Structures are given as C-alpha cells and as structure tokens.
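lol ok so funny story. i was supposed to be doing the assay writeup but got distracted and ended up predicting the structure for this chain instead. priorities right. anyway since i did it might as well share w the group, maybe its usefull for someone
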Amino acid sequence: MASHLTDTTVLGNGVRMPWLGLGVWKVTEGQEVEHAVRTAIETGYRSIDTAAVYGNEEGVGRAIRDSGVSRDELFVTTKVWNADQGYDSTLAAYEQSLGKLGLEYVDLYLIHWPVKGKYKDTWKALEHLYEQGRVRAIGVSNFHVHHLDDLLQDAVVKPMVNQVEYHPRLSQRPLLAYCQKNGIQMEAWSPLMQGKELISHELLVGLGQKYGKSPAQIILRWDLQNGVVTIPKSVTPSRIRENADIFDFQLSAEDMSLIDGLNLDTRVGADPDNFNF
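and the output, tada:
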C-alpha cells in the first residue's frame, strides 16, 4: 500500500502512475494554475491532470517547464473533449493539446466522456497515438461498465485507466470490481465531492480526530486503500500540501467499511448515461 507521495501504481502496460496527483479542473488559466502546479511540484507531487476543455493547458505547461523537475519524472494527463471526438479530429486535438502544453508527449491521454457513436473511433485514434509512441498510456473517463464492455469488443489496446467521479457518496463498487478484474486502473475525480457535505460529516470528522488527520485526508486515504488513484483539486498551497500528507497512516479494515457505508450513489457531476455537452 502506498506509503510515500512518490509511490506509483503499475498500469496494464507497465507504465508507472503516481497514486496521488493534482487536478486542475476549474482552475483559471494564467497565474492561478501556474501557481497551483508549481506549489504541487515543489511539495513533491509528480502527477498533474488537465484537459483540453479546462482551458489551462498552457499554464500547466509553463509551470512544468519552470519547475526545474525533469520531464521524465512527471506524469501529465490531458483529455480529448467531446466536440473533438472522432478519428481525425482526435488526432488533431492531441496535437493542439501538445502544442499548448509545450511538451513532446503526454503520459496519459483520455477520452473525456463516452460520446455515443463516436467513442470507438476516438479510441482508434488513441490506439494510433499509443502505437506511434506519442503517448505513454491511454484510457477513458466517465465510462460505465457497459461503455467499457462495448469498447473492449473492438479495442486492440485495452484502456489502462478509467477516471470517474468517485467519493464515499458514490463508491461505484461494481465498476471498481470490473476495472480491477480487467486490469484497468480506476482514478477518482472529485474525490472530496467538491467540498460539499462530506467534509463536515460526523463520521469523517470523528475518524479525523481518531487518526489526527482532516476529514479530507481520511477520504483520500480511503481512495488509496481501495486501490483508486486520486487527483484532488486545490489552488490553496496549504490544502495542496495537506492533501499530500496521507502516506503516514493507514485506516483499519473496520473504519474502511464504515466509510463504505456512506455510499448513496449520489453524483455531483453528470451521469455518463445522460449528459448533453
């Protein structure tokens, strides 16, 4: 089990991916995103997760170049947006993202949402990029089990990652079991439920007191102990550091199951079966 900020999980193709990264959804392009990414890298984070639609790839790239950390020590994720899905348009979108990031390659390229009638052609484009050595790993985001089943029918390369909304109110047990059985690494976006009622929940507050940690740290540790990579988003330096301070304790099996009991199948984001963007 992960015991250090630089610890990694091994993806299906042997590539190592850090267990903890910084998410930059809704972080403004320019100084805000650059400062967040620089703070994270200085703290010891080695994984940064962005996306074309976030509009901040340029700032992420600048912060990476200014960090003084060599490129091969970092793990950079970006995603193809829905409007760009399809074979040729995905290849073009990848080049655009690379140009904005100012990088030679990305470590992980994801299909952002399962756009009906398009995600299979999009996947073929990702397979092409992967086979050309342009990207170190490929995967999907917001895919349910049935989307994965459908994709795997024609896929030559199996997705290495499925990044989904995941937190104690949406524990997605069947999806997690499916991913683990099929060698697909699950990754949590919105692990803290965007700071909604979870952080003040009495169970998590109580567990925080028991372990000498914040409720957020308890949740992030729960992610890791369930074998789920996590990318909490923050622009506050103290919070970025706090989110990384989860490797010096372990939740007991009993406390893990208490947190499991918080599941209500509640989403803060869209349902992958019913989105209109």
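The first helix runs from residue 31 to 43. The domain at 8-260 is CATH 3.20.20.100 (TIM Barrel).
back to the writeup now i swear
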